[in-house]
Amino acid sequence: MAKKRRPVxxxxxxxxxxxxxxxWDRPLQAPGHMQVxxxxxxxxxxxxxxxLGRVRQALAGSGLGALLVFDQHNIRYISSTVIGEWARDxxxxxxxxxxxxxxxxWDFGSAARHHRLYAPWLPPKHSLAGxxxxxxxxxxxxxxxTQAAREIKAILGDEGVVDMPVGIDVVEPPFLFALQxxxxxxxxxxxxxxxxxxxxxxxxxxxxxxxxxxVDGVYQDIAEALRPGVRENEIVAxxxxxxxxxxxxxxxxxxxxxxxxxxxxxxxxxDRLVRPGDQAFFDIIQSFVGYRTCYxxxxxxxxxxxxxxxxxxxxxxxxxxxxxxxxxxVTTDRIARAFPKAQEIGFESEMAAFGLNFCHGLGxxxxxxxxxxxxxxxxxxxxxxxxxxxxxxxxxxxxxxxSAARIEEEVVVTPKGAQVITLFPAEELPIANRY
Length: 435
Prior knowledge:
single chain; alpha+beta; Creatine Amidinohydrolase; 2 domains; six-stranded mixed β-sheet; five-stranded mixed β-sheet; 16 strands
C-alpha cells in the first residue's frame, strides 16, 4: 500500500527572499571567475538552494506529485549536476523530484560514483547509474526502459506520491510507454519547470552578467579582425577559441552572416569571404557555468551606404522602443506591439517572420520565459516581473535588397525597468577598420 502523501508547505521563493543581501540599487556584479576569500562572489550552494526551492514551489502548486526530467537544463537546475555537452542530446540522464523528497539522479556509468564523491548536497543513495536507450541504439527489447520505470514507481511509492501524476519534459517514446505500462500517470512537467526558472536569483544574475562580459570582449576581437579577405568561419573560429580560453563551458553556436547572405537571415555561417562595404552581423550563443548568452551585433566593413545606415537606425529604434517599455507589471503584449509587423520587413506572416523581432528568456536554457512576439503574445500575454532576464532582438532588411541590420540586447528586469547587460557599443552602426 502506498504511503499517505505528507502535506507540503509551498516554498515562497523570490530573488530578494533567497538572498536578502541583494539590493537592486547596487551595481550588478561581474566578478572574476575565481572564488576568493576577500569578497563575496557567486555562492553556488545558495544558488542550488534557490533553484531547488523554486522547483518545489512550482511543483507544490501544480497538482503533480513529482517531476521526472530528461532535459539537461532541467536536470542541472534541480540537482546541480552536469557531465558536459556530451550528454546534451543523448537522453541518457534523468532526474526525479517529489514534493517531499530530495533529487534523485540517474547518470551515465561512473558519473554517478563521481557525484557521490563530489556532490555532497545529494544523498549518496540518490546518485544512481542508469541507461535506457541512447536514442534507440539500445532496443526496448532489452528491458531497460521497463526496469527504469519500475524503479521510478517504487520511489514514488516510498515518497507517498504514487497515486499522483508525474510531470515529464522530453522523453524517449519507449520510456513514456514503459511508465504508462507501470501504471504511472504522466502529465506535462515542462510548464512547471519553465515557471520555476523564470525568476533569477542574484547569483544567477551575476553568472548571466559574467557570460555577457565574456562576449563583450569577443566583439572587440571581431571588430579588429573584420576586414576584407577574412572568412565567416575564421571569425567563428576566433570567437570560439577566445570564449573557451575565457572559461566558457559550451560554445553552442555562432552565427556569422555577411554581404548578400544578410537578407533573408540564414541563421548559420559559411566560408564566404568578407568584402569591402559588407554589412555583417554575428550572434554568439555560449554559456558560463551553464548560463547562456544570445548576443547579436552588426558591423560594416570599412564603409557603409545610406541604405545600410538606415536599416541599422530602424532596428535600433525598434530596440529602444521595446526596452523603454520593460518594467515589472507590464504585459508582454505591450512589448510585442513595439516590434514591426511581418509585412514591414517583407514577410507574409508572423510565423514566417518569427525570431527576427522578438524577445526570449535566458538562463540555463537559450529559450526560457518570457517569449514575446507578435506571433504569441497577443493571445497569451504574461506580466513581467523583477528578476526576469531576456534577450531583445531586432532585425531590419536594407532597401538595397541584400544588407540587413541585426541587434540584440540582454536585459534584466529590475524594479525600476530594464538594465542592459550586453555592453559592446551598439547605439550607432559600428564601422570596423574604417577606410
